User: Fold Elongation factor 1-alpha from Acorus calamus.
Amino acid sequence: MGKEKVHINIVVIGHVDSGKSTTTGHLIYKLGGIDKRVIERFEKEAAEMNKRSFKYAWVLDKLKAERERGITIDIALWKFETTKYYCTVIDAPGHRDFIKNMITGTSQADCAVLIIDSTTGGFEAGISKDGQTQVGYNPDKIPFVPISGFEGDNMIERSTNLDWYKGPTLLDALDQISEPKRPTDKPLRLPLQDVYKIGGIGTVPVGRVETGVLKPGMVVTFGPSGLTTEVKSVEMHHEALQEALPGDNVGFNVKNVAVKDLKRGYVASNSKDDPAKGAANFTSQVIIMNHPGQIGNGYAPVLDCHTSHIAVKFAEILTKIDRRSGKELEKEPKFLKNGDAGFVKMIPTKPMVVETFSEYPPLGRFAVRDMRQTVAVGVIKSVDKKDPSGAKVTKSAVKKK
Assistant:
C-alpha cells in the first residue's frame, strides 16, 4: 500500500437483506486484495451448496465467519482502491457489534454508503415512516446511485441497462467524497480494539489512530492503567509505517508488555504529550431517546465510548435543558425521560478513559445502552482525571527518557 493515496474509512449500512454483503463483497472482489485462490474456494463451496446467487455475499460471510472464529484473516481483505482513495470497509455489514459501533461513531466512518432494497415492496419498506426516519439532509449533495450489487451494473463501470441514469457510478461517487480533515496536530489518542500475541514478535495492540501521530521509537502511555513502554514498530496491512496518522487502522509492537496487561478500550497516548488518564468522573450533555420509564440518580447503564463498553453510574442529574437552545429549564430535576436533554455527572464503575468532545471528539461522544437498545446519546463536557498509582514503566521506556 503506497502512502500517496489518502486513506478513508467507509461504513456500509442498510436493512438486513438489502444487498449490503453482496455489494461490499463485489467491490472488494473486483477492486480489493482478495487472493484468487480464496475466491475460487468460496465459489466452489457456494456452488456445492446451491448458493451461486450469493457468491459475493458468501465471500464476505465466509471471511466474517473465519474472523469471528478467531482465524486471523488479513484485514487487507476489507480494502479496495479508487483512483483517489485507499478505502477500508470498517465493519462487516450485519456484524453483531455493528449497531453499537455505528451509533457511537466508534467506527469513525468518513463516509457511509446506505443500501436500499430496490425490489417492489422492499424499496417502499426501506423508506417508510417506520423505516428510515428523516433526519434532514440536502438531496443535492447526496448522490443516489442505482446499482446491481450482484450483476455489477453501475458499480464500477456505466451500464447500458441503466441508460436513463446520467449520474456517477458507485466508484465515481466514492471518489467525489471531500477529503477528510485529520487532527494530526493534537496529542496522540489510539483506542485499542484488540491485543494479540504474535509468535516471534510479541505483544501487538491493534486500533485506529483517532488523533495525533504514532511512530516507532515513541514512548507510549496506555490509559487508564498508566503502563508506559516503547513502540518497536508500526504496521498497517502488513506493511511497516514510519508514522501512522488519524484514520489509520494499525497494529504496533510494544516491548516488555504481556497481553494480559492491555485490554480493549485502553487508549495509547504519547507519554510526553498530555498522556491519557482514567476518569474519576465526568459531566456530559445527554439526550434521552428511547427509555420506557424515567431515568433518575443512580441509573447505571453501559456506556459505549470509542472502543470501551463500561457500566457508568448517573451519579447526579445536574440540570434539564432545552434541546434546541440549550437553555436551562430546571435545576437538579428528579428524573429525565424520553425527549429530555440535560447535564449529568457520571462515574464509571471500572477504570476508563474518556475525553472532552471539544478536545478529542472521537473520545468525547458516546451512546448509552440498556435493555439491548440505545437509550441515550451524549457528549462529554468536562472530565475529572485521576493519576494512576504504581503504574508499570518498562525498562525500554526508562532508557528512552
Q: What stands out?
A: The helical segments are 20-31, 36-48, 55-68, 98-104, 122-126, 170-175, 395-400. The two ends are 33 Å apart (CA to CA). Residues 69-76, 92-98, 100-106 have pLDDT under 50 and may be disordered.
